[in-house]
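WARN retry 2 of 3 for item q-0093 after timeout on previous attempt; input resubmitted unchanged.
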Amino acid sequence: MRVPGCLFVSLGLAATIGCNTVEDGASGGGDEVEGCAVVLRAGTDDRDAIQTALSEAADNSTICFSGSFEITTDQMAASDKVGLTLRGIDAGDEVGAGAVFDFKDLVGPTGFKFSNMQGITLENFTVKNVKGDGLEVRGSTDVVFRKMKVTWERGASNNNGAYGFYPVESTNVLVEDCEASNTADAGIYVGQSENIVVRRNVVFANVSGIQVENSRNIEVHDNEAYDNTLGIFVHDLPAVPAGNGGGALVRDNMVYDNNRDNFAKEGIIAAVIPPGLGIMVMTMDDVEVTGNTVEGHDSVGIAVVSYKTVELLDPPDREPDPDYDPYPETLHIHGNTLSGNGDAPAQLFVEAFGLQMMADIGWDGVADASKDDADGRLKLCIHDNGAADFVNFDSLNLGANKSFDLAPHACEHPARPTVDNGLLQ
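OK item q-0093 returned
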């Protein structure tokens, strides 16, 4: 049947644009999909119809998908939209079950790319086998990923894309109830952004499970990270236009058995990450790590390092960034449950710092001697982590003055507030 006022797009099965009715060409029956302005059902050649729907989408509209789409010609992209939602509508309880987009390792550098969006929600579908990154959202506000899955079916490989989820240069970001695996850098990455919540996700078989970089006002909570090289990574890098970030709450995550060999491509910062790390804070200021369960890491359960240690291990080939602060300050690690960490550290720790054993909590011992910290506001504070052990591995002196004494860190900082970015339900 043809519905007056609706534009039909053929995908093998018929779809409608501008109304809620979808015609099933195989069965001849019609159905309605509540809340969907556009419904696209998988057929033999889908990419052009999807791109048309994205390009022509009205403000505050929802494009819905059903079935398994094979995308072999080009990425899908949209920009300058207001309130756009992409939603998979097939039934199923698994993450990403609403629809599947298989890029067959032919399309890159991203699968879906969005820029300058004023409200973008992606929910309940799977993106797999992209030649580059799975999902990129850049320069946007009110960015939501919900119940999404990104993976590469070949397993962990440096031929996979660097990022599964890749929101950057954005304000108000929510990543919740998603899954990322087999990415050659970070499963879930948020960079140069602010007002960020990453919650209730599962990340495994990545180099970094969750990574937040050069961002501000961050909360990472109730995630599960396992079988990555590094579970959760909060950090700042130099020569980034956003400058140093700061203000992160990492709480109530399950982080375990992140001992996977690093499979990142050579020449990127991720390639120098040693395996066996649970949570690592590098350079970023004002970070609270609390309520996490961190266990089974060969190298360190929770690590705090400066960029000076990175430069020692991987000397930069560029001029220094004069505006970059390489020292992590005002860190508060407390109320975590740690066990089984540091028993078989990566060769980097053995060879560079002479440590046959590491610890549940490790610090590189590097602080900014030029700053006055008479009131202790900049200190690394560690307390109430059960029987967790500690090592200051004194990186700049190659471990010559390493210490296992926690007494200098018996202090507290004010609790970080939770983040309300206006997107939480």
